[in-house]
Amino acid sequence: DGGITQSPKYLFRKEGQNVTLSCEQNLNHDAMYWYRQDPGQGLRLIYYSQIVNDFQKGDIAEGYSVSREKKESFPLTVTSAQKNPTAFYLCASNSPTEGRANYGYTFGSGTRLTVV
Amino acid sequence: DQQVKQNSPSLSVQEGRISILNCDYTNSMFDYFLWYKKYPAEGPTFLISISSIKDKNEDGRFTVFLNKSAKHLSLHIVPSQPGDSAVYFCAASVGTGKLIFGQGTTLQVKP
Predict the structure, then answer these.
(1) Exposure check for chain B: N or C terminus, fewer CB within 10 A?
(2) Backbone φ and ψ of A96, nearest 5°
(3) Chain B residues with CB-CB distance to A under 8 A?
(4) pLDDT tens over chain B, length 111 residues
């Protein structure tokens, strides 16, 4: 079955450490996205990539970095510069170039990151 | 600047009754709207969508209404079931495929 896989499901980070969240999709989707969910704030866009080797900052990119070396993969690194990294992180993908009917995202199951 | 707003953080309804979740937007360039449902510690799942050229779309118990003049959309769930208890997000796109989400509304359906 096609889908989008995020790992790990739970991640603990010490102060000052960088951590990388994995996101892999086998849906052949062109675009991939990273969102962060905090209570009462909905889903906020961190970074997105519409094509391999290209990505753009979202609304809250500070303290995060990404890469898109392969179509299937879009890892997110949470750096020590991110002041409040504890949150639920969601990866998503779609193929908007195939028309509006394909705007809908497929989401991964999320990674809960906690700073200890 | 919040372009998509869900002003009701929570909603409680009785099983079998109608649930109405509301969403307002500010950007008249949005051309596609979607609703997602999310359970705790899981990714959101797609529910229903509507193009800006329509004013209603129905799928089983779920109906989405779009009022472009008021920049308002709503999701109706009839009849509501306890399994519908979740967080519901509305989302909108300006044609790039990138979605902008509202803050979410937590629906509780009581047996």
Answers:
(1) N
(2) -65, -25
(3) 6, 9, 31-32, 34, 36, 41-46, 49, 51, 89, 93, 95-104
(4) 679 999 999 999 999 999 999 999 999 999 999 999 999 889 999 999 999 999 999 999 999 999 999 999 999 999 999 999 999 999 998 877 789 999 999 999 999
